[in-house]
Design goal:
Layout lengths: L1 H5 L2 H16 L1 H14 L6 E2 L20 E3 L3 H6 L4 H19 L1 E3 L7 E4 L8 E3 L5 E3 L2 H15 L3 H11 L12 E2 L14
Parallel strand pairs: 1-5
Antiparallel strand pairs: 2-4, 3-6, 4-5, 6-7
Helix pairs in contact: 6-7
């Protein structure tokens, strides 16, 4: 019983309940995808599928078909003549552009949502899917992250550790209102990629 309380199951369930409806409104996800595509349209190493609005609703999202290799399948990508070092550099560029230039970023970038394109005209580009969870950053947030990266690259781990409380991050690393989930309309998650 004590272990159960320590895991805070009521808080966990409440957190899921708070976000579940948002995660299931595909019009919101389509809006997120379109906004990210618009912001990153000139960023060569990343492709965001086009949304076909005429066929979308709160429960259906239709987007451009993609062909790709999951980002976690590095050997398969290399066998498909993808330049892996170039891909790694492109990933850093994509991350820094989303975070520091736009302050609007894909906040669910796990290997199931990021592919390397195998289409002939897009070979070697990243392709992102699943735009249900997007984050936004203020200028204060961006400055904190920049200072944190500098400290990390300089191996000043004490500065990294002591910077979190000043930034509004709690001991568990959860943001207190600084990184917010984007709600252009209500809802989101899951995209029509045949997963």
């Amino acid at each position: 019983m004590v272990d159960g309380r320590r895991l805070k199951p009521r808080e966990v369930v409440a957190e899921f309940a708070m976000h579940l409806n948002d995660e299931l409104d595909l019009m919101r996800e389509a809006s997120n995808a379109s906004q990210l595509r618009r912001k990153l349209r000139r960023l060569h190493p990343l492709m965001i599928p086009e949304i076909y609005w005429d066929y979308c609703s709160a429960s259906v999202m239709v987007m451009q078909r993609i062909s790709g290799i999951p980002i976690s399948h590095v050997e398969r990508a290399a066998r498909s003549r993808v330049d892996i070092p170039r891909l790694a550099r492109a990933g850093v560029e994509i991350f820094f552009t989303q975070v520091f230039r736009d302050g609007f970023f894909h906040a669910d970038m796990h290997p199931g949502n990021i592919f390397v394109s195998t289409d002939i005209d897009l070979r070697g580009k990243y392709v992102a899917v699943d735009f249900g969870i997007m984050g936004t950053l203020t200028d204060v947030d961006k400055n904190y992250l920049a200072q944190n990266f500098l400290a990390f690259f300089q191996r000043d781990y004490k500065r990294v550790a002591t910077g979190a409380p000043r930034s509004g991050l709690g001991a568990a690393g959860h943001a207190r209102g600084r990184v917010r989930e984007r709600h252009p309309r209500r809802g989101a998650n899951l995209c029509s990629t045949g997963r």
